Amino acid sequence: MEYNKDYFRSLLEKIIAPVRDYYSEECAGLYLGHTGVAYEDCTVPMEGFSRILWGLAPLWAGGDDISGFSEIYIKGFSAGADWRSKEFWGAIHHNDQKFVEFAAIAFAILIAPQKVWEPLSDEVKVRLVSYLSEINNHTVSDNNWQMFPVLVNLALKKVGAEYDKERIEFCLSRLEEFYLGGGWYKDGITEQRDYYVPFALHFYSLIYSKMCYDEDRERCELFRVRAAEFAKTFIYWFDCKGRALVYGRSLTYRFAQAAFWSACIYADVPVFNLGIIKGILVRHMEEWLSNPIFDNGGILTIGYRYPDLHMSESYNAPGSPYWSLKVFLLLAVDDKHPFWSSEPEPMPVLEETKLLPEAQMIIQHMGDSVTALTPGRIKYNYQVHEPEKYCKFAYSSEFGFSVPRSNINLEQSAPDSMLSFELDGYIFVRRICDNISVDKDKIISEWSPFKGINVITAIIPTKNGHIRQHRIISEYDCTVRDAGFAVSNTRDSGCVSFKNEEHAEVKNNISFCRVESNTGGEPEIIAPHPNTSLTYQKTLLPLITYQIKKGTTEIETVVTYM
Predict the structure, then answer these.
(1) Residue 189 confidence (pLDDT)
(2) Which distant-in-sequence residues (6+ apart) come within 8 Å of 333 by Cβ?
(3) pLDDT digits (tens, 9 = 90+) for 155-179
(4) Residues contacting 231, CB < 8 A, separation 6+
C-alpha cells in the first residue's frame, strides 16, 4: 500500500462520510446521539457541526473536497449565527463551551476561506463576525482555552474585521506562564500534564507559528523550538505498534493523540525524519481503526478502544469524539511536500528507561508496549475518575487502565495498578498526594487514602517491570491489596491465569502480568466488572492481599510485565 496523501484523505472520508445524513434541516447542527452533557443543550449540535471542521478544513486547504460537505457548511453558518433562526447556536456567556467550537470555525476560516468564508453572503458574514467577536467580551477557562481567543482574533483579522490585538497578546503571555521547560507545558493552573500539552497547547501554537511567522517571528520560532524539544520526549509515549500511552482525561478524543505529529509536518518543524513521523501516524491510525470504535452506523462513539460511556467526561457529548480529526491537519500540506512520498519507518531506538521530569514520570520503553510510572497528583481538580486517570502507580499502552463502577466491592472498584484499602465494606485508593518526588530510578509519594491512614510509596523501575515499596501507618486493622495491570480476558485473547503461594499471573496471546510479594501476602486473581477497563471489555486482575494491623507496616510487591 502507498501511504500517500490519498491514503490519509481516504481515511478521513471513511470516518466522516457516515455523519452526512445527520445534519439538521438548516445544517447548523449535527445530531449524533442522545446522551447528556454538562453544558447547554443548544451547544450539543453546534459541537457536532464544528468538530467535523478539524478534518474538513485541512482537506479543503489542501485543494480537496468530499462531496456534499461544502454546501452543508455554507448553509449551516447562515442559520447558526442568526439569532432569528430556530437553529441559532445560542447566547454567549463566560467560559462558554461554544468557545471550543469557535476555535474550529476560526481555524477553518484561517486555512480554507475559499470554502467557509468567501461563499457567504455579506449579511451572513456580518452576523458570523459579530457572533465570533463575542469571545472578546467574555472570559475563557484559564488553561488551553486561552488559545481560542487567539485563533478567533486571527480569523477576524484575516477577513478584515475588527479584532482585539491586546487579547491575543494577553492570551499568548498567559501561555508563557504555563511553560515548564523541556518543551512541556502544564494545562493552566492545574497539575495536569497530559495529552492537552501536544493536542492543544502545542497544536494551536504551531498553527500560530505557521500563520504569523512574518509578523511575530521571534515568538513563532520559540514555539517551533519548543515543539522540537517536546518531540524528543513525547515520542516515548508511543509504542512500536502505534499505540499511545493510555493516561489522563479526554481519552475519547482517541487519535488526536497523534495530532502533534501532524502539526509538526504542517508547520515544517524539524523533529525526526519524515519517515519516522509517517510511521507513527500510519501505525497509530491503523491501530485505532482495527478497534470497534464506531457504532453500527459508522458513527464515532464515546469511549476508548470500544464504546464506553463509563469512562467519559462530563463535557463529552455525542459529537465530542470528532475532536480526534485534528490528526488530519497534515492534509493541509501541499501535494508536493516530501512527507507524502516518504516511506513509513519504524520507531527509532529509544532508551529502555527514560525520566521525563517535566511530565513527572518514568517511561519504560521495552517490548511492544510503553509503561509510565507516575507519582500521583498534589492538587485535585474534581474531574470524573481523576484518581484513576492520574493517580495510579503505572499506565500502559497495552493494558490501559480501569475505572470503577463503584467502591463497594473489589470487582466493581477494579483497582488495577493501585494499592487499595478495604474499610467498612468500601474500597479506598490514592486520590491526592501530600508530597511527591521523581528521579531517574525512583518515584516517591506521600499520600492518604482515608483519614487515619498514611502511606509512603516508592516505585522502582526494573528491567522487567517495577517494585513497589509501601510504608503504611494505620489507625485501623484493614485489608490491603496491591494490584498489577488488568489483562485482557476477551473472547479471542487466549487468556489463562495461575496462582500459587508465591505469585499470581495472568497472560494471554500478547501480554502478561505477574505480581509477587517479598513480604508475605496472599496472591489472588479477580475478575473486575466488564467495561471497567478502557482498553478491553473483560479483564482479569492479579494482586497481592495483605492483612494490615494498627501501627506501622512495610510491604513490598514486585510487578512484572515485560
Answers:
(1) 80
(2) 62, 265, 266, 339, 340
(3) 999 999 999 999 999 999 999 999 9
(4) 183, 260, 261, 264, 269, 271, 272
Q: Which residues of the chain fall short of a pLDDT of 70?
A: 380
The three-state secondary structure class of 316 is coil
Q: Which pLDDT score, from 0 to 100, does residue 115 have? A: 96
CB 486 within 8 A of CB 551: no
Alpha-carbon distances of 236 from 270, 351, 372, 386, rounded to whole Å:
17, 9, 9, 23
- The CA-based angle 347-353-354, given to 5 degrees, is 85
Q: Using CB atoms within 10 A of its CB, is residue 552 exposed (0-12), middle (13-18) or buried (19+)? A: exposed
| SS3 of residue 288 by DSSP | helix
- Angle (deg, nearest 10), helices 53-61 and 69-80: 120
Grid cell, residue 364, equals 519504560
What is the per-residue pLDDT for 156? 98
List alpha helices for 159-267, DSSP H: 165-178, 196, 203-211, 217-234, 259-266
**pLDDT tens per residue across span 119-143:** 999 999 999 999 999 999 999 999 9
pLDDT reported for residue 179: 97
The phi and psi torsions of 344 (rounded to 5 degrees) equal -60, 135
- Report the distance separating Cα 27 and Cα 82, nearest Å: 13
CATH fold for the domain made of 353-560: Beta-galactosidase; Chain A, domain 5 (2.70.98)
Q: Which fold has domain 5-341?
A: Glycosyltransferase (1.50.10)
- Which sequence spans correspond to the domains of the chain? 5-341, 353-560
For residue 192, what pLDDT is reported?
Answer: 83
